[in-house]
């Protein structure tokens, strides 16, 4: 019996030339029947595209193997579509190619002429390998294989209209523009989603970098860079990707600077896992942050040595202004030990979090000092007004600090000035010899109240003291607010009384000695509400429409007026109310002009003095502030008051006009995103509460209503972001290790660059709490990964100030 055989290389050459194979006995044979694998019929039946249906266009670039050209594919309908043709036998390069690349391309073309069979078989193996990877993949962020052609020998792929991502980044760098935080997030999320999909199918990509990511849509450097701008990218070039066994794989592959230490150190001869792609992902984030490749000024040997020794590419001061969580994830991904890097599904999970692009700044303070109170200084940006008629918030924050052992020490002020969502200046000074307990912004001044009963007034621009006064009793100061419609600064005391001071400090200058022309700057109250003996812990003011018809006048609850100045009462149709939160769950509502009692309400709509209210205190009362358009009293937001109690986990929205609760939200029903059932396996220390939703952990500790959102800070270190009318929760962020004590609004001035349109005023929210908690802390224990901004790990006991971008949470 005689068996006739054919060399496989001969079959590949015949397929390329579209020639039959000749048998001495049977004559010409159909190659499709004889060797279907030589024509890819075994893995891609019905995907062979006729040469007559393809038209090659201009050169696009050089890939890992061969060149990529733009082309057109004629469909069955006769209409052409634009395609990308990846041609392994064509080694053309562009005119701008570096000399080394041009020399390599010339050598490859010379090898093809001298030994076409070998070159063709090398190309065949490369194409077959990549097709075997691509064929089963179906993902929105992975380039689709449309088919293949045997002559010209090429793979036909989706066409990316904007080319490779590295060129987009180069355009941004030339324009002097950095990626928008939200655009950066979309680039990370989409690439992480593709990588997670590959790893789920046991494929290690091995060459992740911006050069291998193709772009369908992307904002131009000169565009507005809005949050809604569409970004579509897809992972391409699977020439060195491999299917991996569960134990891992071996083999050298990748680009210097992007290859993990375990590949570089052992030259691919030792087993490694898909964590090598996590390392490359960290370098990919580095490209997005810096707009250039890592170690781009070093040769491959130098890069290898640095990577193996644990060094990472440097970050400039401008690079460190990227979103904090982006830098944290980058540093986490490029950890030296593979088992300390996050898997791709965790990268995808963390980067898709709403808060991922929003944390823009982190500032820590000495653990010995606590932040007692904080206030945003008066606006220098816009004159829009909030529901309480105060001017729009500004770009400076006054943090009032003291020793945690409150019996000793002095009051210390830290003024943080913000621009482009980051602190650029910090001013510190001391005030008196007593702890500062309350602070209030009044136009271009800041009023401070101390534990010893002293009031200080400082200029918000020069930081110099303008005036001071003492409360002539041993009554403890609990709260202070500005009521611009009545020209009052109201000071609430522990005995339930309220002192009203004129907000124009020039009215507090007195000439005690006629022979002395210099006035004495002493604060004296103009009016007093004597109260009911129940401490007032919080206050809020808002204008409401005046009662119509012959409605009864407010009940007088006590008025020992010392008013001697001629103030202009408002002549419009609105009247000012002051809501006072007290112990026993009471809300006392006062007329803001005369400080007369209007009525008393139960904070939870129970009967006043009911047994369920006696153990509760109204701890927070807020009206809505604004960073943009002035809030009208006719707007539902303008007549809303948000109330929280201690102890308590709920926040209530009151309609101030109808004096009733219309909505509420319970923080205990909204756990943080990464604190789910999976964490139940983690041992809980003795004495700790194992339930993250318990009342002790969901206690409301801070409250802020600004624009369309309500921010709620809890004792578990969480911030709940809600719609301020419906109280629908958009997201829950656990960013501090312990309680979120303060939430403040901020704005930064618009910035205009030669290459970009004018930016809008940027709305921010500042949170003050204990410790910093990175996104990965909930998944990998409580050790916060060090931020690349500071290079150090934060401690639980440190006071930490975080600044968040606060635009369009509901998206």
From TrEMBL:
Domain Protein kinase: 54-359
Gene3D superfamilies xref list: Phosphorylase Kinase, domain 1 (3.30.200.20), Transferase(Phosphotransferase) domain 1 (1.10.510.10)
Domain of life: Eukaryota
UniProtKB keywords: ATP-binding, Kinase, Nucleotide-binding, Serine/threonine-protein kinase, Transferase
Residue spans of biased composition, Basic and acidic residues class: 602-619
Residue ranges the record marks as coiled coil: none
Region of interest (Disordered), ranges: 545-569, 601-620
Protein's UniProt keywords contain Repeat: no
SUPFAM superfamilies in the record: Protein kinase-like (PK-like), WD40 repeat-like
Molecular function GO terms recorded: ATP binding; protein serine/threonine kinase activity
Transmembrane segments: none
Binding site for ATP: 86
Name of the protein in question: Protein kinase domain-containing protein
Source organism per UniProt: Desmophyllum pertusum
């Amino acid at each position: 019996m005689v068996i006739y055989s054919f060399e496989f290389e001969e079959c590949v050459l015949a397929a390329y030339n579209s020639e039959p194979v000749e048998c001495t006995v049977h004559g010409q044979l159909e190659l499709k029947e004889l060797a279907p694998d030589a024509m890819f019929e075994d893995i891609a039946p019905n995907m062979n595209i006729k040469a007559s249906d393809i038209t090659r266009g201009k050169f696009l670039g050089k890939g890992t193997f061969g060149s990529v050209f733009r082309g057109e594919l004629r469909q069955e309908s006769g209409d052409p579509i634009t395609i990308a043709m990846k041609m392994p036998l064509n080694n053309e390069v562009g005119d701008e190619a570096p000399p080394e690349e041009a020399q390599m391309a010339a050598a490859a073309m010379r090898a093809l002429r001298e030994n076409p069979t070998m070159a063709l078989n090398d190309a065949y193996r490369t194409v077959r390998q990549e097709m075997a990877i691509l064929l089963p993949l179906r993902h929105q962020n992975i380039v689709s294989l449309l088919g293949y052609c045997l002559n010209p020998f090429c793979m036909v792929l989706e066409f990316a209209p904007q080319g490779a991502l590295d060129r987009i980044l180069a355009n941004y760098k030339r324009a002097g523009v950095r990626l928008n935080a939200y655009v950066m997030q979309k680039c990370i999320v989409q690439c992480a989603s593709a990588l997670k999909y590959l790893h789920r199918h046991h494929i290690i990509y091995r060459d992740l970098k911006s050069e291998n990511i193709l772009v369908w849509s992307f904002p131009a450097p000169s565009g507005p860079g809005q949050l809604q701008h569409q970004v579509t990218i897809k992972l391409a070039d699977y020439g060195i990707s491999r299917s991996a066994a569960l134990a891992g794989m071996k083999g050298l592959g990748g680009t210097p600077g992007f290859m993990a230490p375990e590949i570089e150190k052992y030259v691919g001869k030792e087993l490694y896992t898909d964590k090598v792609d996590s390392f490359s992902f960290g370098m990919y984030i580095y490209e997005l942050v810096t707009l250039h490749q890592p170690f781009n000024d070093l040769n491959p040997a130098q890069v290898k040595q640095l990577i193996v020794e644990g060094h990472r590419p440097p970050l400039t001061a401008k690079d460190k202004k990227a979103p904090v969580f982006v830098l944290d994830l980058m540093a986490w991904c490029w950890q030296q030990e593979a088992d300390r890097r996050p898997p791709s599904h965790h990268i995808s999970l963390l980067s898709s979090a709403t808060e991922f692009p929003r944390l823009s700044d982190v500032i820590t303070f000495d653990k010995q000092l606590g932040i007692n109170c904080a206030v945003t200084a008066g606006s220098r940006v816009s004159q829009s007004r909030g529901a309480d008629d105060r001017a729009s918030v500004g770009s400076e924050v006054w943090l009032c600090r003291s020793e945690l052992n409150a019996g000793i020490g002095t009051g210390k002020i830290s003024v943080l000035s913000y621009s482009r969502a980051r602190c650029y200046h910090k001013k510190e000074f001391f005030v008196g010899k007593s702890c500062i307990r309350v602070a209030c912004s009044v136009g271009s001044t800041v009023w401070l109240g101390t534990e010893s009963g002293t009031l200080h007034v400082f200029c918000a621009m020069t930081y110099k003291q303008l005036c001071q006064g003492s409360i002539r009793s041993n009554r403890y100061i609990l709260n202070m607010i500005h009521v611009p419609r009545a020209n009052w600064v109201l000071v609430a005391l522990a005995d339930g009384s309220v002192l009203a001071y004129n907000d124009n400090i020039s009215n507090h200058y007195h000439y005690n000695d006629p022979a002395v022309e210099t006035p004495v700057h002493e604060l004296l109250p103009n009016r007093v509400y004597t109260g009911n003996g129940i401490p007032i812990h919080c206050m809020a003011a808002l204008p409401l429409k005046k009662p119509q018809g012959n409605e009864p006048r407010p009940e007088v609850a006590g008025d020992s007026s010392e008013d001697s100045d001629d103030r202009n009462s408002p002549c419009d149709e609105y009247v000012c109310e002051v809501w006072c939160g007290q112990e026993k769950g009471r809300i006392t509502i006062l007329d803001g002009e005369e400080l007369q009692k209007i009525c008393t309400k139960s904070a939870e709509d129970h009967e006043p003095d009911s047994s369920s209210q006696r153990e509760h205190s109204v701890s927070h009362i807020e009206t809505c502030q604004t960073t943009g358009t002035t809030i009208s009293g006719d707007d539902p937001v303008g007549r809303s008051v948000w109330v929280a109690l201690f102890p308590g986990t709920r926040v209530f929205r009151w309609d101030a006009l109808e004096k009733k609760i219309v909505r509420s939200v319970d923080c205990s029903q909204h756990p943080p995103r990464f604190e789910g059932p999976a964490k139940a396996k983690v041992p809980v220390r003795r004495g700790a509460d194992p339930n993250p939703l318990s009342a002790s952990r969901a206690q409301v500790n801070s409250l802020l209503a600004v624009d369309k959102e309500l921010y709620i800070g809890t004792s578990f270190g969480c911030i709940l972001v809600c719609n301020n009318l419906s109280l629908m929760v958009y997201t829950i962020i656990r960013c501090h290790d312990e309680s979120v004590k303060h939430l403040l609004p901020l704005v930064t001035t618009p910035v205009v660059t030669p290459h970009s349109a004018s930016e809008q005023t940027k709305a921010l929210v500042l949170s003050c709490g204990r410790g910093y908690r990175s996104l990965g802390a909930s998944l990998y224990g409580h050790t916060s990964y060090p931020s690349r901004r500071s290079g150090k790990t934060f401690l639980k006991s440190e006071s930490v100030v975080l600044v968040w971008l606060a635009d369009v949470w509901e998206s």
